[in-house]
Design a protein that fits this description.
22 helices, five-stranded parallel β-sheet, single chain
Length: 489
């Protein structure tokens, strides 16, 4: 039997389905969260649900908000469920489900309503998951994009903004004028130094219309950095049907995620914060080393298995990890070349972290795909691989495997796998990359001369030589042989 998910259903959950272990009617809002997508509900909402279940922090419930049409659709789905949703953890040892009740309201997609709620002194944290691309970053300069149409609109209309950052500024101004302390702005997006990026966007927007107010924001508003991690696939009819069939709930917006989550935050919350350390979050003076660990081992590891996996014909990440050639390549690269570029973190074992990453990548229940990992290589390589390669070259530490990863990407950009199957373009610069990759068969410099991707790194003789040798071997001997040569030294 299946029942619609709502407050009444909490008394009739199927055996094995956990529900809120607290009185939701006693919760009050302390966090306004912008961007109530899957990751937020699998991550922050779960941490808070667990905290409330300990009898703590009941004045820190989530008020949802959003500024896009998709947010309105999510609000409609969750409103019919009294803001409840099912989170399914995709554990290979057995799926588990929990109904999460930490969100108690979701505001209409309406600027004045959202600004008014942020102005309420009870709201002490405004958090965001607006995706990595939602911070108005100029792709060419990596700075704040002052030319974006939405930014130009908010700069001209600061009292009636349409971006989340414009609304934050309007609320901060109202709180300042009313004598209320500013809320903390907490990014939960997967960005290096996400707090600094958020501060740059908020103060940059403010400076376009009121430089003095921008200075006040910079001096008085906290933007702590945080590192977030939990693989959370998109929800489809498959997940909705799974929740109905396995857990007896009709949920229009369930979330499925891996049984791992990590949250590391700088402890800089002047108006208070929930005691998230009681449920597994870590508060540290500086998040940077944790971010670097994740970016280099997890995201860099994704890149390593993405192009080797695609060229060897794998579709699912867990199938690639079941291929000993790829698993061995990942282990050797992360252990011998990526970890040596990292500084030690007290209490953290890089070997244990690498083992956990391999375990997570191998989880068949997540269903992550190689094509997803291969997306947008011209944007991801400069973030996850090339900085590691630069550092290895500067330190004169091992770097040949990092050069091999770039060669694998180049071979992938040529547009066919080793069986001759066509690889569909999946990069905004796919045509240019393909032309360069074909030219590189005879002249490897044709690929490395792409200064938008490589900057001056392509002119480094050590990199160019190793890249050229690897690329020639990939074309002449094949991926499997080249990976084996690398692993075997």
């Amino acid at each position: 039997m299946t029942i619609p998910l709502n407050s009444a259903a909490l008394a009739h959950l199927a055996p094995g389905v956990d529900g809120p272990a607290y009185d939701r009617a006693a919760l009050t809002g302390g966090i306004l969260h912008i961007g109530v997508g899957n990751f937020h509900r699998a991550h922050m909402a779960v941490y808070l649900d667990r905290l409330f279940g300990l009898g703590q922090g009941h004045d820190w419930a989530i008020i949802g908000a959003g500024v896009r049409a998709g947010d309105a659709a999510m609000r409609d789905r969750l409103m019919a469920q009294d803001w409840l949703c099912t989170v399914v953890e995709l554990d290979p040892a057995g799926l588990s489900a929990r109904v999460i009740g930490s969100m108690i309201d979701f505001l209409p997609v309406d600027g004045p309503t959202i600004i008014a709620r942020m102005t309420d002194p009870a709201i002490r944290i405004v958090s965001l998951t607006v995706t990595e691309g939602g911070y108005f970053i100029d792709a060419k300069t990596d700075g704040f994009d002052t030319d974006h149409a939405d930014i130009a609109f908010d700069a001209a209309n600061p009292a009636a903004p349409r971006t989340a950052f414009g609304m934050i500024l309007a609320a901060l101004r109202a709180r300042r004028d009313a004598g209320h302390a500013p809320f903390t702005v907490l990014s939960c997006d997967n960005l290096p130094e996400n707090g600094h990026v958020t501060q740059r966007t908020v103060t940059g927007l403010a400076a376009l219309s009121d430089p003095d107010f921008a200075d006040w924001v910079a001096a008085n508003v906290a933007f702590p950095n945080s590192m977030v991690d939990c693989i959370t696939p998109a929800t489809s009819d498959r997940e909705r049907q799974m929740v109905a069939d396995k857990f007896g709930l009709i949920d229009a917006a369930p979330v499925a995620c891996e049984p791992f989550r990590q949250w590391v935050l700088e402890d800089h919350f002047p108006t208070g914060r929930p005691a998230l350390e009681a449920v597994g979050a870590q508060f540290v003076p500086n998040v940077a080393q944790f971010e670097l660990m994740k970016l280099r081992i997890l995201n860099g590891g994704h890149a390593a298995i993405a192009y080797s996996g695609a060229l060897l014909g794998h579709h699912f990440v867990h199938d690639a990890m079941a291929d000993g050639r790829i698993a061995g390549w990942l282990d050797h690269l992360t252990r011998t070349e990526i970890v040596p570029t990292l500084h030690p973190i007290p209490g953290v074992s890089y070997d244990a972290y690498r083992a956990k990453i391999a375990e997570r990548f191998s989880n068949p229940e997540v269903g992550d795909t190689i094509p997803r990992l291969c997306l947008d290589g011209s944007n991801r390589q400069p973030k996850f691989i090339l900085p590691v390669l630069r550092e290895a070259l500067v330190k004169n530490s091992p770097y040949l495997g990092l050069c091999l990863e770039v060669a694998l990407w180049c071979r992938y950009c040529a547009g066919t796998d080793e069986a001759g199957n066509v690889i569909a373009p999946n990069d905004d610069n796919a045509a240019d990359l393909r032309a360069r990759a074909h030219a590189a068969r005879d002249d490897p410099a044709a690929f490395l001369s792409n200064t938008v991707v490589f900057g001056d790194l392509g002119a480094d003789a050590r990199f160019a030589s190793a890249f050229g040798n690897h690329l020639h071997a990939l074309w002449s001997r094949g991926v499997a042989a080249v990976l084996a040569d690398y692993v075997n030294g």
